[in-house]
């Protein structure tokens, strides 16, 4: 069977709008679990008797474990039935969430959080699975819908966890998360193909080692993939450091708010999910490289305004919305570039992109808590501005490279 025949068998017509919505919801639920800690970081630290840099290990190890899991597991999506893989990953998340909800020791909590990150593969395997089944001219639109789900999970996790933590204690967020993981475990396999054709029967079968080793030629021959990953690492790092800083800043003695207020701010910021589908359509129309520059400017403006916010929660709303708006749209643009490349290696392209992104996220999670412990809110604002400036510079360079 030729590659053309194989592509025909895995193309269009298979993804209905209902299934696309369910896949997006599954991405939202799966990605949310790693971010309950952000509004709850202060009460979790208080219960376990840890603070500062040590407490920052929870989100940092979660993100680094996620990057490791993607590096070792996501490439299997080009070879192993995706339905089977997603079932295993959802089960792993369920076990980790139950362990976090029941943890009586900080070390157990950190280990379970790391396992949770390692098993969070679904939000990055699903887009590769879905975009193989739509027409090329709809890739940006579909990517926008799926990214809207991921963004909804990122933002709603903070809002929901903050409110649950305020009224029922921080463990309630992890019990609810376990229920969501169970729902994904049951529903997603039902809407996926049981007998998925991933490869040409006549093509030589790669060993697992060769599959992982094939990532390096991708990095070497597709620099735009690595650039997309670095841009998203900085953008995601900006996002994580900002929200960890917000969680610590608003619940500090200086501000005096509860974790529920952090949650309400996150829910307000979640309105940005509405821009993701629009960003995807815009990338289809004018080009993803131009879209990256546009939203890098918006992120940069948001970072500047963080200095103005200071102790005013009302002014803080503006840079939060701008930063989240720019970050979500940046991700859509980057993914649109990736999904325009060869479908037969799409999960490996995603592997390079997501591993780079989460290595940046893990480092930034630790830097965010360390920066706040060192210099308070101004240190978070300064770190955010440095990241936003780097993002804008690289986005402009990427557009110049594309045009030449």
TrEMBL record:
Entries under InterPro entries matching the protein: MFS, MFS_dom, MFS_trans_sf
PROSITE patterns registered for this protein in UniProt: MFS (PS50850)
Any one GO molecular-function label of the UniProt entry: transmembrane transporter activity
Domain Major facilitator superfamily (MFS) profile: 1-401
Keyword vocabulary terms for this entry: Membrane, Transmembrane, Transmembrane helix
Keyword Membrane recorded: yes
Cross-referenced SUPFAM superfamilies: MFS general substrate transporter
Listed name of the protein: Predicted arabinose efflux permease, MFS family
Species lineage: Bacteria, Pseudomonadati, Pseudomonadota, Alphaproteobacteria, Sphingomonadales
